[in-house]
Design brief:
By secondary structure, this protein is an alpha+beta fold. The chain has three helices and five strands.
Length: 135
């Protein structure tokens, strides 16, 4: 099922503030909200990001789509989060509502447990912000 969405400038600014306060301020290297087609809705980074987040967003959406099919094969409704650990940086994906992903890139100095806690807090805030206008 495909959903359409429309976010106001005020909602976009609020999302940026949530990404900054809840994720960037704890030491995340980059946090961005994308739709399931891989379009970036909002992003924040620490100014030292070397990656092409537009390509990363498209690949992340495809990756999440593949994982969703794996969940279906296993009889699960969905896997709502993914995590890939690297030597220097790791990436964490969380589903937001049904058509968005929150993606965070973080280094070894940030624990996965703390990131998951803060990401869940950010998602709760984003859901409340988007939900009334989500169609």
């Amino acid at each position: 099922m495909t959903y359409s969405y429309s976010l106001s400038q005020m909602q976009l600014e609020s999302i940026e503030e949530i990404l900054q306060k809840d994720l960037m301020d704890i030491g995340v290297n980059c946090a961005f909200l994308i739709d399931m087609a891989g379009n970036i809705i909002s992003s924040q980074d620490n100014g030292r990001l070397q990656q092409d987040i537009y390509s990363l967003a498209a690949l992340a959406a495809g990756n999440f789509g593949a994982i969703s099919e794996m969940a279906s094969i296993l009889g699960e409704k969905e896997f709502s989060l993914l995590f890939h650990k690297g030597e220097q940086e790791s990436i964490h994906f969380n589903k937001v509502l049904s058509d968005f992903l929150l993606i965070t890139i973080f280094g070894q100095d940030l624990s996965l447990g703390f990131l998951r806690l803060k990401a869940n807090e950010a998602i709760t805030k984003i859901n409340k912000l988007i939900q009334p206008d989500y169609h």
